[in-house]
Design a protein that fits this description.
Shape of chain A: globular
Number of strands of chain B: 12
Largest sheet of chain B: 6 strands, mixed
Order of helices and strands of chain B: EEEEEEEEEEEE
Number of helices of chain B: 0
Helix content of chain B: under 10%
Strand content of chain B: over 45%
Distance between the termini of chain B: 41 Å
Oligomer: heterodimer
Strand content of chain A: over 45%
Number of helices of chain A: 0
Structural class of chain A: mainly beta
Radius of gyration of chain A: 14 Å
Shape of chain B: globular
Chain lengths: ~120, ~110
Amino acid sequence: GAGVSQSPRYKVAKRGQDVALRCDPISGHVSLFWYQQALGQGPEFLTYFQNEAQLDKSGLPSDRFFAERPEGSVSTLKIQRTQQEDSAVYLCASSLARTGRNSNQPQHFGDGTRLSIL
Amino acid sequence: GNSVTQMEGPVTLSEEAFLTINCTYTATGYPSLFWYVQYPGEGLQLLLKATKADDKGSNKGFEATYRKETTSFHLEKGSVQVSDSAVYFCALLNNAGNMLTFGGGTRLMVKP
């Protein structure tokens, strides 16, 4: 399909395990974003890539969270030593252009990965 | 920092009723404003947007006007349908253009 693809759709892990969440953005999209959506709340910004460069990671809640986009396309969000409070839906979005004051390219979202930590 | 506040749900309406979902924001500068919709089991979809004061975004019968004087971006629809049942999120884009700040979402339930 032509949209943002995320996998797996659902992930269950035991507390303390490491998890990796994958995002395939729309082909050719320069900007990629990760958000965390807790149950019943709006998404919250985690991090942003422009091509392979991670330009903003101010929303990552702790050093257990790590994101990469080594070739400027697919991105992986890794969570180490998972905790119960990490349970949420993790959303990936991409947009065509570089961001900036005059850029109003919409962010296109995937369906998310629902992470449950037992 | 930036923030978005929207009315809590659920909002329950009968088919063909008029819809208003309130949204107000706090931000520096002149952010762009958005409404996203999340249907059950699906991801967020952009519904409409407005990029400057007094702009009106519209799509699928929904409208919202960027009101700088009241820092608001209320969503309206004249006649809702059962298929409009979803969660609606108001959001603003920061000046750097790299971060969306979302409200908490409003669940709309439309009964036939």
